[in-house]
C-alpha cells in the first residue's frame, strides 16, 4: 500500500488533563471514520509512579482511565499510553502536541530527526516564550515547526477539559493555512458537541489562547477580593483590550473577527468562570498563599499556565518600555510573584490607559 493511501497514524504528545480529554474525543472519532486513520492512537505519557506504587501508563492501559490527570473518564481502548516519547511518534502522520508550554522545548529537542518528513503537527498548547537574550517572542507552533521541520497548525478555544470529556457542547477555532491540514483536523475533531471554525491564521489564534490565561488570573484576583460585578466585568473588558492591543503589537493587520471567536472572547469568559488559573488566583487573593503552594495543594501535578505566561509577557513589554500601556499584564506578573498586593490591580484600573481618550 502506498503511503498516501495507508491509514494515517495519529500520535498524541501529552496525557495531562487536556491531553487525556482530547485523546478520548479523537479516539472515539477515529473509530467512526473507519479506515482513513489507523484506529490505534499512541499517547505519550511521561511515566510516573502513583502513590500505590503502580506505573501510570500501565494503569491507563489496564483501566482505560487516566486516574491521575482526568479521573472518572473512560479512555477508549484504541488509545494506548506509551512511556517512550520517540516510540509514541514513530511513523505518525499527525502529531498532536498537548503538554504544558514550559516543557515543549525539551520535548521537541528529544524528537529532532525522529519525525516522518511528511507529518504535520497540531498544537493545543496555550503559552509562548520570550527569549531571555533577545526578548523576541516565539510561539509554540513556531518552536515545533523550527525544531522538527514540519508544519504546525493550532486549535484554541473555550475548552475546559473535563467538560469536553463529558461531551458538554463547546466550540474551538483552528488556525491553519493549508486546506489539507484543516480537513484532517476537521475529520479528527469536529462533532456536533465540539464544533470547529477555521481561519488561515495561526499566530493570533495561538497568542489569544496564551494571553487569556493571564487575564483569567486577573479575574481570579478580582473575585478573590470580592470585587463588585461591575468591576469584575471591567477586569474582563480591560483585560481583553490589553490582549487585543498586545496582538496588534505583533501583527497590525490581524483579522478582527478572530477576537469574537472561541479562541478570543469565549475562551476568556470560560476561563474566568471556572478555569484552573482563575481558581488558583482567587485562592491567592483570599489566602495570600503562593501560587506554587496552591498548585501543589489543589492540582495534583496539573500546571497553571497563566503565571509563567505573565512572566514572559512582562519581560517582552519591559524590553519595549511598554509596561505602562499594559497595566493589567504588568500587575498580573507582579502579583503572581507576590511583589504587589492583589488590590493594586483593581486600584490601577482607575487610571487605565483606556480612559486617556482624546
Ligand atoms: N486542561 C484544560 O482544560 C485545557 C488545557 N489547555 C492547554 O493544554 C496544555 C496542556 O495542558 P494539560 O493537558 O491540562 O496539562 P496538565 O496541566 O494536566 O499537566 C500535567 C501534564 O504535564 C506533564 N508533565 C509534567 N512534567 C513534565 C515534563 N518535565 N515534561 C513533559 N511533560 C511534563 C505530566 O506528565 C502531565 O501529563 C496547556 O498549555 C494548557 O494551557 C488548553 C485547553 C484546555
Ligand atoms: O484553557 C482552558 C479552557 O479553554 C483551561 O484554562 P485553565 O488552564 O485555566 O483551566
UniProtKB/TrEMBL annotation:
Coiled-coil features, chain-numbered ranges: none
GO biological process: carbohydrate metabolic process; glycerol-3-phosphate catabolic process
Organism: Rotaria sordida
Active site residues per record: 212
Keywords: NAD, Oxidoreductase
Homology family: Belongs to the NAD-dependent glycerol-3-phosphate dehydrogenase family.
Protein name: Glycerol-3-phosphate dehydrogenase [NAD(+)]
Ranges where the Glycerol-3-phosphate dehydrogenase NAD-dependent N-terminal domain occurs: 9-180
Listed GO CC annotations: cytosol
An example molecular function term from Gene Ontology annotations: protein homodimerization activity
Keyword Oxidoreductase: yes
Sites where the protein binds substrate: 126, 276-277
One Pfam short name: NAD_Gly3P_dh_N
InterPro entries reported in the protein's UniProt record: 6-PGluconate_DH-like_C_sf (IPR008927), 6PGD_dom2 (IPR013328), G3P_DH_NAD-dep (IPR006168), G3P_DH_NAD-dep_C (IPR006109), G3P_DH_NAD-dep_euk (IPR017751), G3P_DH_NAD-dep_N (IPR011128), NAD(P)-bd_dom_sf (IPR036291)
NCBIfam families per UniProt: glycerol3P_DH (TIGR03376)
Signal peptide: none
E.C. designation(s): 1.1.1.8
Binding site for NAD(+): 14-19, 103, 161, 276, 305
Amino acid at each position: 500500500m502506498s503511503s498516501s493511501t495507508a491509514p494515517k497514524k495519529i500520535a498524541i504528545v501529552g496525557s495531562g488533563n487536556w491531553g487525556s480529554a482530547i485523546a478520548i474525543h479523537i479516539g472515539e472519532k477515529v473509530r467512526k471514520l473507519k479506515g482513513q486513520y489507523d484506529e490505534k492512537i499512541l499517547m505519550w505519557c511521561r511515566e510516573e509512579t502513583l502513590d500505590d506504587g503502580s506505573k501510570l501508563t500501565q494503569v491507563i492501559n489496564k483501566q482505560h482511565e487516566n486516574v491521575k490527570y482526568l479521573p472518572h473518564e473512560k479512555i477508549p481502548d484504541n488509545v494506548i499510553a506509551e512511556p517512550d516519547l520517540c516510540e509514541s511518534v514513530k511513523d505518525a502522520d499527525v502529531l498532536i502536541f498537548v503538554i504544558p508550554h514550559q516543557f515543549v522545548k525539551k520535548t521537541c529537542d528529544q524528537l529532532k530527526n525522529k519525525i516522518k518528513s511528511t507529518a504535520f503537527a497540531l498544537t493545543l498548547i496555550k503559552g509562548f516564550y520570550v527569549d531571555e537574550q533577545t526578548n523576541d517572542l516565539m510561539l509554540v507552533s513556531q518552536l515545533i515547526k523550527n525544531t522538527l521541520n514540519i508544519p504546525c497548525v493550532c486549535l484554541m478555544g473555550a475548552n475546559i477539559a473535563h467538560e469536553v470529556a463529558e461531551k458538554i457542547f463547546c466550540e474551538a477555532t483552528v488556525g491553519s493555512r493549508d486546506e489539507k491540514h484543516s480537513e484532517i483536523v476537521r475529520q479528527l475533531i469536529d462533532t456536533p458537541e465540539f464544533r470547529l471554525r477555521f481561519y488561515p491564521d495561526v499566530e493570533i489564534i495561538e497568542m489569544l489562547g496564551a494571553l487569556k490565561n493571564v487575564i483569567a488570573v486577573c479575574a481570579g484576583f478580582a473575585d478573590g477580593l470580592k470585587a463588585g460585578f461591575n468591576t469584575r466585568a471591567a477586569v474582563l473588558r480591560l483585560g481583553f483590550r490589553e490582549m487585543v492591543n498586545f496582538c496588534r503589537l505583533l501583527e497590525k493587520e490581524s483579522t478582527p473577527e478572530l477576537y469574537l471567536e472561541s479562541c478570543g472572547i469565549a475562551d476568556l469568559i470560560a476561563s474566568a468562570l471556572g478555569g484552573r488559573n482563575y481558581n488558583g488566583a482567587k485562592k491567592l487573593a483570599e489566602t495570600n498563599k503562593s501560587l506554587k503552594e496552591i498548585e501543589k495543594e489543589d492540582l495534583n501535578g496539573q500546571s497553571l499556565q497563566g503565571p509563567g505566561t505573565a512572566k514572559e509577557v512582562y519581560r517582552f513589554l519591559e524590553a519595549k518600555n511598554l509596561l505602562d500601556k499594559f497595566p493589567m499584564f504588568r500587575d498580573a506578573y507582579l502579583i503572581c510573584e507576590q511583589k504587589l498586593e492583589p488590590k493594586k490591580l483593581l486600584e490601577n484600573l482607575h487610571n487605565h490607559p483606556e480612559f486617556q481618550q482624546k
